[in-house]
Amino acid sequence: MRPLLPSLEERKHGRLAAIKPIWPYLIEFRGRIAIAFTSLILAKLANVSIPLILRQIVNSLTGGSKVLALPLTLLIAYGALRLLNSVFSELRDAVFAKVSQHAVRRAALEVFAHLHKLSLRFHLERQTGGVSRDIERGSRGISFLLNFMLFNILPTLVEIILVAVILLLRYSIWFAVVTFTTLAAYILFTLVLTEWRMIFRRTMNDHDSKANTRAVDSLINYETVKYFGNEHQEITQYDHHLQEWEQASVRNQVSLALLNVGQGTIIAVGVTILMVMAADGVVRGTMTIGDLVLVNAYLIQLYSPLHFLGFVYREIRNSLTDMERMFRLLDSAPEIHDRPGAKPIAISGGALRFEHVDFHYQTDRQILFDLDFSVAPGAKVAIVGRSGSGKSTVGRLLFRFYDVTAGRILIDGQDVRDVTQRSLRSAIGIVPQDTVLFNDTVYHNIAYGRSDASRDEVVAAAKHAHIHDFLSSLPLGYDTLVGERGLKLSGGEKQRVAIARTLLKRPHILVFDEATSALDSESEKSIQDALREIALNHTTLVIAHRLSTIVDADLILVMDFGRIVERGSHLELLARDGIYARLWAMQQREQDSGRFSEALAL
Q: From residue 321, how far is each of 34, 134, 324, 326, 466 by CA, in Å?
């Protein structure tokens, strides 16, 4: 388990790793960066020139001159320099906006695309709420880092050097010594305390992600919470993470106050010493009133951005922490890769072959043992068995969400590991037991099966799934929103949408994983008739709980504890009087009992 707080070495490596992915996005806009950087230099040169002009103005006015032409010219120059500083600063920001926002978009897109490349195992072990919050904070961090580090820290340092050089050349060396000493003390103090404060920031982020994950998970499972009356439990668990976040947040704020007081003290001491030195120079006659104004103007000009530099550094450290967490997602390597030279799958008939397949999720818990069977092109093979016997794992292996531990899976003689994942999954359609829909319209969810399908094709698929009439009766029809995870639809309606989506895909191989488990008997029969008609030209693998839905299967495989323990047709298995026969008898009794209950209700 990864420790909550990484070591110092890990944090340094993490900061470098967080910055490195950004550079390729910047190289795309060399021209914009050059223009922005030039604007930055011109703005700072104008800014540094302002106190020099101000000194001349003050000296001209205090020197008793009655000629206003020179001060007027200087005043115009003073205003022009301020205008140029503002214009070049805004031009810099406007030109660089495209660079920073594009980098945010590219980075977020890269992480999002990478998450889709990761295996099902990764997503089953991660919590979506925390991951989404990491991406959100990391994207904001990139924007802040680019805008403030490149165009605030760098120009501030350049300005500090220019001011120090001017003070060194025009006045006593002690002005530069005091300036650099104050600067060094300020930066050292800021670095030390900011590093210490990052502990609280990391703790805040961790509990913020946990609280967000808890909230998202609870709201998604709103109905379950209500069923069991566990609102108080959910609120208590959410509040626990908020309390931890609150404590870390308070510590973070108190340490921030300590940092600000320390920075203010250092600046106040440095400013006081320099002003005393300047005033003493005026008294001695070695400096003019204009020189005093010049030093004061430079001090304001120097320490204002220096104070802001402390804020920027803290925020950049925070941004690097957020980016480190986001880009750490890229360190998770995809478990399933396309092999070098993998080609698109070539489907001729759609024959399936599981050849002595073993599989385990963890090495100490094997799921499938020597699974060996074939499905002829256009045939229908059903897999039945108790819960936990490994039925649904067969479908996941076929889609190559996982790779087999031993043996191989063939489609028309091609090992699924030798073809591209995209072509493999495009050739297979599945209606899963737990149907999850996007929070969008019914039309969008059906059309998701094939994005280039016409509206007529979407409607035709809905008719085959026996949901068209229901949708036509709704006020918004196909434009009806299904809600989060399809909660506005009944279980049967969701499953019909899923069936329509799969039919629209036009796959060569069909997989039905308890596809009609949420339907009533009448709806089940009508959909089974449609599926039977569609399956005539498809290789079909049915993972079933209701045995009545697979009596027409060409081959029925009975699984128990990850092994095939019986195989044959429906009649052959009944005649064998084994596990299948007992399951059949049990379900027949349940159906008879249900019919009897319905009769009593009538």
A: 28, 10, 5, 9, 52
1, part of any domain: no
pLDDT at 530: 63
What's the confidence (pLDDT) of residue 7?
44
Place of tokens 């904070």: 137
| Structural domain includes residue 63 | yes
Measured CA to CA, the distance from residue 5 to residue 20 in angstroms comes to 22
Q: Note the pTM of the prediction, 2 decimals.
A: 0.62
Any domain includes 445? no
Long-range contacts of 226-234 (CB under 8 A, 24+ apart): none
pLDDT attached to residue 518: 56
Look at residue 143 and tell me if it is in a domain.
Answer: yes
Angle at 357 between CA 353 and CA 358, to 5 degrees: 165
In angstroms, the CA 212 to CA 216 distance is: 6
Residue stretches of the chain with pLDDT short of 70:
1-21, 63-70, 119-120, 122-130, 133, 149-151, 303, 305-311, 314, 484-487, 515-531, 533-535, 591-602
Distance, CA of 345 to chain centre: 31
DSSP string, 256-296: HHHHHHHHHHHHHHHHHHHHHHHHHHHHHTSS-HHHHHHHH
- The domain of 107 spans 8-331
CATH number of 317's domain: 1.20.1560.10
